Amino acid sequence: MEFTEVKTGTSKEMPSKIIVFGVPKIGKSRFAAQFPDAFFINVEDGLQYIGKEVRSTPALHTFEEVLGWLKHIHDSETFKAGRLVIDSLDWVESLAKDKIEKEHGAPLSDRAYKAYAYGAGQAMVDDCVIRVFRGLDAIYKKKSIPSLLIAHSAIKTIDLPTKDPY
Q1: How many C-beta neighbours within 10 Å does residue 66 have?
Q2: Can you give the pLDDT at residue 158?
Q3: What letter does residue 62 receive in the DSSP assignment?
Q4: How far apart are CA 86 and CA 50, in angstroms?
Q5: Which residues in the chain come in under a pLDDT of 70?
Q6: Run of H or E residues at 18
Q7: Ramachandran quadrant class, 8 (left: phi over 0; alpha: psi -120 to 50; beta: rest)
Q8: Helix 63-75, helix 89-104: angle, nearest 10
Q9: How far is CA 120 from CA 56, 100, 111, 127, 133, in A?
Q10: CA–CA gap between residue 17 and residue 148 (Å, rounded)
Q11: Which of 104, 108, 112, 154 could form a disulfide with 121 if both were Cys (CB 3.0 to 4.6 A apart)?
């Protein structure tokens, strides 16, 4: 067998988005803070644990605040950053869920609420989250600021009646 090296990676353009996905408290935010001039969209409010001072929004508590900050960053003539960090994407989804439930006056779990039938409620939440992705794309297109999105995984045990738990 011959071991031959090849040259690769000739693109000069950075990817506009990177997603870091992992279990809680593994160091995703700490990793993101290592990027030069990272600016955090602080949704989770856990930045006090990363071990260094970073630029960020105040803790955001509504979906409208998240969109407002993205619009501000996009429209501001003076805002600059090396990378935008959404910390975290699953918390953004939770805020989107809260927004939809508030607008409709019913929890997404309400199976009797017709507007949520056949997964329409979750589709509404997904549409909100897509607005965040579009905002990040618009910022990248206008200002060339790439983004890093942090997301959490959860380990769950599946226990089926006909199989051993896994």
Answers
A1: 26
A2: 79
A3: S
A4: 15
A5: 12, 14
A6: strand 17-22
A7: beta
A8: 120
A9: 34, 11, 11, 10, 20
A10: 6
A11: 108
Q: Which residues pair with 40 in a beta bridge?
A: 56, 85
Select from 149, 151, 147, 126 the least CA-distant residue to 137: 147
Q: Which of 109, 8, 76, 91 is nearest to 44 (CA)?
A: 91
Question: Do the beta carbons of residue 20 and residue 148 sit within 8 Å?
Answer: yes
* pLDDT (0 to 100) of residue 14: 66
Q: What is the spatial distance between Cα 119 and Cα 126, in angstroms, rounded to a whole number? A: 11
Contact 146, 16 (CB under 8 A): yes
160: DSSP letter:
-
Cβ atoms of residues 77 and 96 within 8 Å: no
Only one residue has tokens 């953004």, namely: 92
